[in-house]
Design a protein that fits this description.
It is a single chain. With 612 residues, this protein is an alpha/beta fold. The chain contains 25 helices and 5 strands. Helix 23 links the parallel strand 2 and strand 3. The N terminus is likely disordered.
Length: 612
């Protein structure tokens, strides 16, 4: 049995090494701005999702808005407490993937990772299209250009994140603060209103409230709860990106997680209280948040501030994915489930390959959907519920194994969360299956199979390389260097000088074609070579076809067969013009030879660049 969990295990960070890249990492405040935009923006559609479901039961059904929201807020509290524990137990990040890998097995961890990848990618597409939809609602003339606007917003967010997560956090602090302040003011003012101060926003719009419905069944409440849980997307992002925080990273991440939960909970409950207080009914073409702003603040400048802040934050909430997904991809690459290039980090602590690929895939989704939010929304939130359930199930096993103080209470808390989010995952998948959720049901196992394929490939490569085993000591072998030439120039001299410095024997090779013009050029080269007499023999390689690489590779294979103890190196000389545009003037003969030799032989390929 493992040793009991100590205070150091629960609150890591005291013994963490100094953070050499601290200025490129997040504080609790900047982490909240960089990684919580998805969750914060969900208050724009979470309460509306509840109201739209309950509207099927008429005005009587809308009376359950606050109880359903309180249930979601309770689940939010469970999730925040759970992910705070995840941060403490797994300070290297990865969230549900790290938990599942440690306690639920490899295959389950890949399911969790795949669900997170899908959720992050969909979050970018949904966030951008939702923000642009708010813009085109205010300016209908832009509706026909919404796809190009979506792509422009995506390019902007990608560009900011390529400069580093800290720069993105600083850029988004102001819009985040404006949005939070606007929502809190809306709630505070609304609580002092006995009736809506204005209904101008919803005037003339048809109500979607069902008629003559007086009963509310358990299935409807469950569906409303599951739909409203879309407001919980993004809660996991901070736990996934703990390494992006300054040291002590775990402490700062836990503070940001608690702050996120508190703000999100207050906003969700506050907006639901106002929905009940004003007897708000959903109408076509106007969001619930817009109606609440109208009722609390009036149809004035404050109303448009709320709308504009919501629009901006919805578009920028895609940044949550840019902060969390590259870290997850790094962990998958470290475990050999993705190409290792995703584990590379640039000078500003940026996983650029993860950022770029997230942008490319998201752009593809935007193009396929035509920039339409309704096409993407049915696919959204399923993955995050799978991740929630996996993480909390794993944490139950974590506490059972680690024990420690109050472990039973913590396990019960995580177990309750696992049951609630598991039920929500099933309900959301079932209710949205025919609307497009079936794509996620197919995509998730395909993604897991892709992870497995990459892992097997790395396993085979590692076996051939002898990774983990001590290799034989190095020993000297005879070295033969081949230099492809086509004319006698200073580049030829430089190449031969380098070759005789590298090998025991050097041979120059030239490919001879049967055309009269080529035969004459080869004879002229042979005469000049004899007069120059560089001390290196010139070998002619005849070729009936107009091929350059094949004759050389065939010669190399013959040399390898005749002398198994000889190391063959092909030194390819290439001229490199001073200006970039001049490189388009080259004939690319060197690239053709290098590619052919590398593909078809075991020879070492060296490319000598002569700057001219």
């Amino acid at each position: 049995m493992s040793a009991p969990t100590t205070e150091k295990d629960v609150l890591p960070g005291a013994d963490e090494p100094p953070d050499t890249g601290a200025r490129h990492k997040l504080t609790a405040v900047t982490g909240l701005a960089a990684l919580s935009l998805d969750a914060m923006a969900s208050v724009a559609y979470g309460p509306e999702a509840i109201v739209l479901v309950l509207a099927a039961a008429g005005g009587y059904g809308l009376g359950f808005t606050l109880p359903v929201t309180l249930a979601i807020a309770g689940l939010l509290a469970v999730l925040v407490a759970s992910y705070r524990q995840v941060i403490a137990a797994f300070p290297d990040g990865g969230g549900s993937y790290a938990v599942a890998k440690a306690h639920l097995g490899r295959r389950t961890s890949l399911v969790a990772a795949g669900s997170l990848v899908l959720d992050y990618v969909l979050n970018v597409a949904v966030a951008v299209t939702a923000g642009v939809a708010a813009l085109t609602s205010a300016f209908p003339g832009l509706y026909g250009d919404r796809l190009w606007i979506c792509l422009a917003v995506l390019v902007l967010i990608t560009g900011v994140n390529l400069r580093g997560i800290v720069d993105s956090a600083r850029a988004f602090i102001v819009p985040t603060a404006v949005f939070i302040g606007a929502i809190l003011v809306l709630i505070a003012v609304g609580l002092f209103r006995d009736a809506p101060v204005s209904t101008a926003a919803s005037a003339g719009h048809a109500s979607v409230l069902a008629d003559d419905a007086t009963t509310v069944g358990a299935l409807l409440l469950l569906k409303a709860f599951a739909s409203g849980c879309s407001a919980l997307t993004g809660v996991e992002a901070i736990a996934n990106a703990v390494p992006s925080f300054r040291a002590p990273a775990a402490r700062r991440a836990m503070r940001a997680e608690v702050a996120l939960g508190a703000l999100l909970g207050v906003m969700l409950i506050g907006l639901s209280v106002l929905i009940s207080r004003f007897g708000l009914q959903p109408v076509e073409g106007v969001t619930v948040l817009a109606q609440l702003a109208d009722a609390s603040l009036g149809h004035n400048g404050a109303f448009y501030v709320v709308q504009f802040a919501t629009m901006v934050l919805l578009a920028l909430s895609a940044n949550t994915s840019f902060g969390g997904l590259p870290v997850l991809l790094k962990l998958l690459a470290r475990d050999n489930y993705l190409p290792h290039v995703f584990g590379l980090k640039a000078d500003r602590q940026v996983h650029r390959h993860g950022v770029v690929w997230l942008a490319v895939v998201s752009a593809g989704l935007l193009v396929l959907s035509g920039g339409d939010t309704n096409t993407l929304v049915p696919l959204f939130a399923i993955g995050v519920f799978v991740g929630f359930t996996t993480a909390q199930t794993g944490m139950v096993l974590h506490w059972r194994r680690e024990r420690g103080r109050r472990w039973a209470a913590k396990a019960v808390l995580n177990g309750l969360g696992a049951v609630l989010t598991g039920v929500s995952a099933v309900v959301v998948t079932a209710t949205k299956f025919h609307d497009g959720a079936w794509l996620i049901v197919i995509a998730l196992p395909v993604l897991v199979l892709a992870f497995e394929a990459v892992h097997r490939a790395y396993g085979r490569i590692g076996e051939r390389l002898g990774v983990g085993r001590i290799p034989e000591p190095p020993h000297r072998e005879r070295s033969l260097v081949l230099v492809p030439v086509s004319s006698l120039t200073r580049l030829t001299s430089e190449a031969l000088t380098a070759a005789v410095s590298l090998g025991d024997e050097v041979r120059a090779v030239t490919v001879c074609h049967p055309d009269p013009e080529d035969v004459a050029a080869t004879e002229a080269l042979a005469r000049d070579w004899a007069l120059w007499d560089p001390g290196v023999p010139l070998v002619r390689l005849p070729s009936e076809r107009r091929s350059l690489g094949r004759p050389i590779t065939a010669y190399v294979r013959d040399l390898e067969a005749d002398g198994p103890g000889t190391r063959v190196t092909v030194l390819v000389p290439e001229a490199e013009p001073e200006h970039l545009w001049q490189r388009a003037l080259q004939n690319q003969r060197g690239a053709v030879v290098a590619h052919a030799v590398r593909r078809d032989t075991n020879a070492v390929v060296c490319r000598l660049r002569f700057r001219c």
